[in-house]
Design a protein that fits this description.
Length: about 375
């Protein structure tokens, strides 16, 4: 099956595969590609830490616009939910283009998470002198607690609240970001392509997949290959493989900090209580990339946390794929595994409105046990 055929067959159920002449082949190259996968050595004695982060969710989607703050221009770039690691280069570029409308070339960026750092780089590329002001810097930001796969629509917007104008902003941001992240692959940023396997008890449905991803432009989706019973090593009847970009947050954020500094930015540790504090800054342009902090900083009552936690196992260099889903039908809820150099990240939580930074023990058990079971049964 050539790549185009594989793409055409992506997301098509087994019956439909046969009917459309896309029957799963037993050609060695296709089969070997999955047979070589090394199982994760999932066990409680390999757990090394559990981290918690609060995704900055806005039901009406991220905020990307400008307003006046006295004589200053205040640009907002926050509220990326579970998609900030994916989208930040794009919204950062659009924020920097808003700043170009002013004649001055000095800008303050509030926040040193992924959104603040990439926005600072986009401003620098356009000739701005940038100072970053942040209460916390990596490794102590929400961005460091991220799984950081290419998930540009995850926990991003309540579908009922979408507007054509916001969709246009989103699609522009996603296109820019997808392109930018690809250019960082293989350059020491911790950005790489990796095969992900969605584990399924039934074949994927074209209609459901299309509906879920309706926001995302087609060209930002890689092709998927569906493996049926006996064709893959996982204990579920079906596995759908899709290559995807992924980011290792600790490497990536440190590189971004280094880049903004090398391009001349100072990073000042400072917490602002309200927008009147921003008005005292010397820079005529202020870009607000404060994530969930914008709730109090600029009074954005819509912002709410989507609490997420990851449990890390000892690293395993030979594990070079990710998984989504458990081996128990309807039993474990959604779980996922993604390997990186600092450990194998296991996750699967998103609790709206929970501000606690303490790990949830029940969720930790559920997620670790689901992966112990999954990899014990991997062929
Ligand atoms: C478990 C988990 C998994 C995730 N998985 C993914 C994924 O797979 N893909 C993806 O794209 N995204 C994912 N995300 C979401 C992603 O991490 C966030 O969207 C992103 O980190 C938000 O970045 P940010 O820069 O806006 O916020 P932050 O990283 O929180 O940075 C905010 C910055 O603003 C500063 N700040 C805040 N308030 C103030 C103030 N008053 N004064 C001064 N400074 C202030 C902070 O100190 C910090 O420097 C995940 C998140 C979690 C928790």
């Amino acid at each position: 099956m050539d790549r185009r055929t594989a793409i055409r067959c992506a997301g098509v159920g087994l019956g439909a595969l046969l009917a459309h002449g896309c029957a799963p082949t037993r050609r060695l190259d296709r089969f070997d590609a999955v047979r070589r996968l090394s199982p994760v050595r999932a066990s409680w004695d390999r757990v090394i830490r559990t981290t918690v982060g609060l995704r900055p969710y806005r039901p009406s989607g991220f905020r990307l616009d400008a307003e006046r703050l006295g004589a200053k221009m205040l640009i907002h770039n926050f509220g990326h939910g579970g998609s900030g690691m994916s989208l930040s280069w794009g919204t950062g570029r659009m924020a920097a283009e808003l700043a170009l409308e002013r004649p001055e070339r000095d800008a303050a960026v509030i926040g040193a998470g992924v959104v603040g750092l990439t926005t600072a780089r986009q401003l620098q590329r356009r000739g701005f002198d940038v100072t970053i002001y942040a209460a916390d810097v990596p490794p102590n930001t929400t961005s460091n607690m991220s799984l950081a796969s290419w998930t540009p629509t995850s926990g991003l917007i309540d579908g009922e609240r979408r507007t054509p104008a916001w969709d246009f902003q989103f699609r522009s941001a996603a296109r820019f970001a997808y392109h930018e992240l690809q250019l960082l692959v293989g350059r020491g940023y911790g950005v790489s392509w990796m095969d992900g396997y969605a584990l399924r008890f039934s074949p994927p449905s074209v209609e459901v997949d299309a509906r879920q991803d309706a926001l995302l432009p087609d060209e930002l989706r890689t092709g998927a290959t569906t493996f049926g019973p006996g064709e893959h090593p996982f204990p579920t009847p079906f596995a759908v493989r899709r290559p995807s970009l992924r980011i290792e947050p600790s490497i990536y954020l440190d590189r971004l900090v280094r880049d903004v500094r090398e391009a001349g930015a100072a990073i000042v540790i400072r917490r602002f209580a309200s927008r009147s504090g921003l008005a005292t800054l010397p820079e005529p342009i202020v870009v607000n990339c404060s994530g969930l902090g914008a709730r109090t900083l600029v009074g954005d009552a819509e912002l709410t946390p989507l609490k997420g936690q990851l449990t890390l196992l000892m690293p395993q260099e030979e594990v070079d794929y990710s998984t989504f889903g458990s081996a128990v039908q309807g039993g474990d809820g959604f779980v996922h595994m993604s390997p990186r150099r600092d450990g194998i990240a296991l996750g699967g939580t998103s609790v709206e409105g929970d501000w606690s930074l303490e790990p949830d023990e029940e969720a930790r058990r559920r997620i670790v046990e689901a992966h112990i079971d999954l990899f014990a049964r991997m062929g």
